[in-house]
Amino acid sequence: NLYLFGDPGVGKTHLLVGSYMAMCKTECPRGLSFNNIARLLKIERDEYQTREEAEEKLLDVLSRREALFLDDLCAEVATGRTREFLYLLLNNAIEKGTPRLFMTGNKGIKWVSENISDRIGSRI
Q1: Are 69 and 33 in contact (CB under 8 A)?
Q2: Which of 11, 26, 62, 81 has its CA 20 to 30 A from that of 45?
Q3: With 0-12 CB in 10 A as exposed, 13-18 as middle and 19+ as buried, what is 98?
Q4: What's the farthest any 2 CA atoms get from each other in the chain?
């Protein structure tokens, strides 16, 4: 697993996309998933009848991937719902055995633990 963090504009997303593209060239039987955290949360909020349905479908699809690439962890406002979804996403990936998890954020793990959730920080 890899968590890249730093100020905006230093190339975290560029490195993440490059890693994703390189892995796409190799055989990954379970596939890859590249997602911006804000986009995942928008899908979770907007595109399903209920929150539970959204969480179930998104988590199921993402947990079957060979690797998850998650961009901009710290970009979303950490509401209770956001924290819960991020925790479920990361925890589900661990429990379902997603082999690799690559993430970016503007803040370090200590900041994530103190300001978003210590449970999310511990899973990173």
Answers
A1: yes
A2: 11
A3: buried
A4: 38
100 DSSP assignment: E
**Alpha carbons 100 and 55: distance in angstroms, whole number:** 21
Range 43-80 burial, b when 16+ CB lie within 10 A, else e: ebeeeeeeeeebbeebbeebbebbbbbbbbbbebeeee
Whole-prediction pTM value?
0.79
How does residue 48 score in pLDDT terms, banded at 50, 70 and 90? low
Is the pLDDT at 112 greater than 70, yes or no? Answer: yes
Q: Is the pLDDT of residue 123 over 80?
A: yes
Tokens found for residue 27: 């055989």
3-state secondary structure of 7: coil
Buried b (16+ CB within 10 A) or exposed e, 99-118: ebbbbbbebebeebbeebbe
Measured from the Cβ of residue 8, the count of other Cβ atoms closer than 10 Å reads 9
- Provide the Cα torsion 79, 46, 51, 72; round to 10°: -40
Q: In terms of DSSP bridges, do strands 2-5 and 32-36 run parallel, antiparallel, or are they unpaired?
A: unpaired
